[in-house]
Structures are given as C-alpha cells and as structure tokens.
Design brief:
2 copies of one chain form a homodimer.
Chain A lengths: L2 H12 L3 H12 L5 H8 L7 E6 L6 H14 L4 E6 L10 H7 L9 E6 L8 H14 L4 E6 L4 H7 L4 E6 L4 H11 L5 E4 L7 H14 L10 E3 L8 H18 L1 H29 L2 H12 L5 H12 L5
Parallel strand pairs in A: 1-4, 1-5, 2-3, 2-4, 5-6, 6-7
Helix pairs in contact in A: 1-2, 1-3, 2-6, 4-10
C-alpha cells in the first residue's frame, strides 16, 4: 500500500465512512506497516471524544446496560462508538455476527459504530490496540466512545483505565464481587452502577458499595456516586447517562481530565517504547545468536544479567 | 559496599551460611547495585538444584502440603529451600513471623531455609526476584527448592513456570476451580495433587481431573499423574514426593529438563533486557523532557508512536 492509499483511508475516516473506519482499525490490529502513518494522519483531529470505560464481572449485564446507555445518548444525537473487549476471545474485527447479536438495535444506526476486539493480532497488547481504535473513532467524529470489557482482571483494568470516565457495574447476589472490588477495581471507578436494581438484594448492594466508598481513600469531592439501574426496564439509565456526562464536564473544568489524560499518555508511551524495542531486538539478533547465548546460560558460563547487558550494549548508544 | 564484601557474601552463601543467604536475597530484592556481582559469583555454582513449583487456589492447603513434603524429603536428608510467594502481600524478607507461623516445625532445621516474598522491592517483577532467589539457594547447596504461590492468576503462573516440576493442588468442593484450571493452569501441571483426599468428594475431583487430562493436549507419555493426598494425616505424601523426584529423573534423561530450562532462560533474558532498558531510559531522559513530550502528545502535536520512535532513536545505535 502506498502513501496515496494511506491518505485515502485517513480522509475517509475523517468524514466518518464506516467501511474505512473498520479497515483502519483492522490495519492497526494487524500491525500493518502503515499503521503509524494512519495514526499520524488522524491524530491531529483527535481529542474531542469523551471516552467511557464500562467494566464489571461476567453476568452483571454490561452489554444490556451499554445498549440502554447508547439509546439514551442517541436521544441527544450524540454519535457513539462502542468497543467490546473480550481478552479471552480469539475473535476480533471479524466478529460481526457477535456484535449484531449483542446489540441488534444499533447495527443499522448511522450514528453508532460497534467493534469487537479479542486477542488475535494485538501483538503489542490489547490495551495498545484499544487506544489506537479510540483514536480512529475520535478522529471519525464519535462524540462518545464506550469501551466495554468482560471480566475484571488486570488486563481489563489496564484497558478500562484508558477511559476518561470509568463505570464499574455491580449486580446483587455476586457475593465475592464486592470482595474483588476491594482488591483492585475499587479505585478505578468514577461511577458505580448497580444493575438489575429491580431484583432482591439491590438496595443491600448499593448500601455496601456506599459504605466501602466511605471507608476508602477517595477524596471527599471525588467519591463516586452509586447509581441503581435496571437496563432491561430502562430505569435509572437517564440518571446514569447524566452522571457520566456531568462528571466529564466537572473533570474538564477542574483539570482532572487533563491530568488523567497525561498520565495515560505516559503509560501509553512506555508501552509503545517497550514494544518497538522488542521488535528491534528481534530484528537485530538472529535465532542462532540467541540459541548460542541460551546454551551458554544453560551451562552457567555467563549470567542472564551479563547476557542482557551485552545484548543491550550492542543495541544502545553510549559507553555502557 | 566494595568488591571484598561481595566476595565475602558469595563465599558465605557457597558454604551455606543462612545469615548471608538471607542477606544476599534481600540485596537482590532491593535491587542493590551489587546484585549483579553477587549473581555472577554464585551462578557458576548453580544448576544442581531441582526446582519444584506448587500452586493452587486459596484454601487448597498448599502450605500444609509443602510442610508435609519437606518432612518427607528431609527423611532422605535432602536440603530444602522454600520460597513462599504472595504477590498480594506487601511483606517480604522481613516476614519472619509469617514464616514461623506457617511452617513452625522447620524453622530450626538446619537443612531447611524458608523465605517469604511479596511485592515490595521487587521492582523488576516478582518472577525475576524469584529466579534470582532460586539461584542463591541453588548455589548454597539446597537440593530441592520449593516455590509455593498463593492464588492462580497470571502472576502466579509466570512464577511457577520457573520450576522444573510443577504441582497443581486441587481440593474437593471448589466447584469453580476445575473451570479455572481449564482456562490456563491446566497445561502447566506436571502433577496434580488432590489435597484433603479424606474428605467427601475427593474421588469425584480425582475422576474429573483425570477426564480433563484425557481430553487435553498432553502427549500420552506426558500426562500428569493425579495423586490424592491428605497433608494433615500425612497420607499419600510419600507417593507425591516419589512422583516429583521420579518425574525429574525422567525429565533429565529424556532431555525435557534441558528443553524447559532453556525456554525459561529465554523468558528470563527477555524480562531482564526489558527491565534494564526501562532503567536506562529513566536515567537518560529527564522528567522535564518527559513532561514536555507528554504535553505535546496531549495537544496532539505529535503521535505517541513518533515520540516513542524519537526516544528510541536517541538511545539506540544505527540509522532508524
């Protein structure tokens, strides 16, 4: 592909052509050699979108909630990009059927773009691929970009932390979940949504969450609201949507938005450097050289630290 | 500390002086500037120990099992080094009380060395710190080095894979556990131990594990045995200990030991390179320079890929 084709993709993404948006994302996922050029063309047009992360345990009804939220946002004509992350799934962009099944009412809406991402192709890590997908959708003019992750492990936490506003979804009856929240997801939430609020135990879950928030390290002014919703009955969704937008406005004014984006950029930069360096090492050191080194290590003729030092010395400038 | 002191530590570790062994491990954990020199002094004396990884879900009774195994191994006068890993714990070498509580009968045995490791200090990652601790204990003459990890997440899997023989511990009644095994721990097991074999449901757990192994991708000759044990009643422990040693003998003869060690060395080398590089970048690029770059990124004046490229260009040799 030549520069003219990159220009074509960039200009079509910028006018919101969905076919080219999908194509650009696939190229980024597949580590196309043009990926960096595409991002370069799009990046100056980024920065307008509000990125919303939605996470929670399996069975919390996240997809239904995202569907209901999108309905709500569409009423005020906001364009919505949705990125569905399933790190355990080998399916990515090709999973059109999956998207359709999960969000049938939005697939024909021109103001909505849905994309599934799994592990395939994202050699540089799913978090990096997600960040680049956000850039494409941002440049394409989507006002709100919703990242929905399945599960609440480290990978999901990393991904959801690329968002401006993070919604952690709970449901009544997942006893261990509150425990899990304590362990690490607690501090990433800007908003807690308690889904299935029409079922038994919902008010108990709300109370427990509020208590946990009080006992936690949140500054008083930044304590996340706990919002009960019923996605199926569409109750509380307007309040949740309003809270998401309101928190974002506050963050823009207070400087929290800028601070968080800059922290995220530092993390992204670190990840890209590591990833580019691994590629560089692989291109500079042959498998044969590596095998010889590994054999020396196995025979305890040299330490791993010394071998690492020698490899870096052959790559890095300076007198180390 | 000067070279003479490093020499002293190395020579005292080599004769098995526990005080110096503990000191050497602390220096490695704390990324002492002498760490690489200490490893260099010890590494030629490594390679004799048999490293055993023991993992399983919380509540599976791993510590009791390790205690019983050590008793068994001590009967044939094998020196045992035990590394207790708890990634969620902030306590490390200092957690002597914890060690004593967990394995009271071994703390006065001269042929046993126990060390707890948590997250503190292990900046280069707990897996790297564990590998270096294994080197110290190996050089100090411990015949068997047992790494016990709490939990079965990715961090624990990474750590336990630094072992020659991996024992995955199950117990009856943890319904979800078998499910979790399927998801990722399954393929790292050389041996399955079903603990609390005197309780209800143990034979069902054994059957389920055997079925799962049959359905899995293990080559017929490498299918892990499933061994029921009762650590508290000391039943089956002799069989488990025998199986661990027998598998190791087979692996030494068949070349599996060498193959696995070399794979582990490649992973270790990769991790050390990444870690050394991050340190190098931090020492070459000032916080001010980084802040300026992050601000340019925030203003969308340059893409993260370009900034990463520029930083690497300033560090790496060649014409990229």
């Amino acid at each position: 592909m030549n520069a003219a084709k990159v220009d074509k993709i960039v200009s079509e993404v910028l006018v919101g052509n969905k076919r080219y948006i999908a194509r650009a994302i696939s190229m980024l996922e597949n580590e196309s050699s043009q990926a960096a050029e595409i991002i370069k063309g799009l990046y100056p047009h980024c920065g307008r979108a509000h990125v919303i992360g939605i996470t929670g345990p399996p069975g919390a009804g996240k997809s239904t909630m995202v569907g209901a939220l999108v309905n709500q946002f569409r009423q005020s004509d906001k364009k919505c990009g949705i990125i569905l992350i399933d790190p355990s799934s080998p399916f990515t962009g090709g999973a059109i059927l999956g998207d359709r099944i999960r969000m049938p009412e939005h697939t024909t809406d021109k103001g909505v773009f849905i994309r599934s991402m799994g592990t395939r192709g994202s050699l540089g890590g799913l978090a990096l691929a997600t960040r680049d997908t956000v850039k494409v959708l941002d440049a394409a003019g989507y006002d709100l970009i919703i990242i929905e992750t399945v599960g609440i492990g480290q990978a999901e936490t990393d991904i959801v932390q690329t968002a401006d506003t993070v919604v952690v979804v709970s449901v009544p009856g997942l006893g261990d979940h509150i425990q899990t929240l304590k362990a690490g997801v607690m501090e990433i939430a800007d908003i807690f949504a308690v889904n299935k609020a029409d079922t038994d135990g919902a008010s108990k879950t709300v109370r427990e969450l509020k208590l946990m928030i009080e006992l936690s390290n949140y500054p008083a002014a930044e304590r996340p609201p706990v919002i009960p919703v019923s996605s199926l009955k569409n109750e509380g969704i307007d309040k949740l949507a309003g809270s998401i937008l309101e928190l974002h406005s506050q963050a823009l004014e207070s400087g929290r938005f800028e601070k968080r984006r800059k922290e995220q950029l530092a993390i992204e930069l670190n990840e890209i450097i590591r990833w580019q360096l691994i590629k560089r090492i692989n291109s500079k050191i042959s498998q044969h050289e590596l095998d010889v080194s590994i054999n020396e290590l196995y025979l305890h003729q040299i330490t791993p630290h010394e071998t690492a030092h020698n490899i870096l010395k052959s790559l890095l400038k300076g007198d180390e």
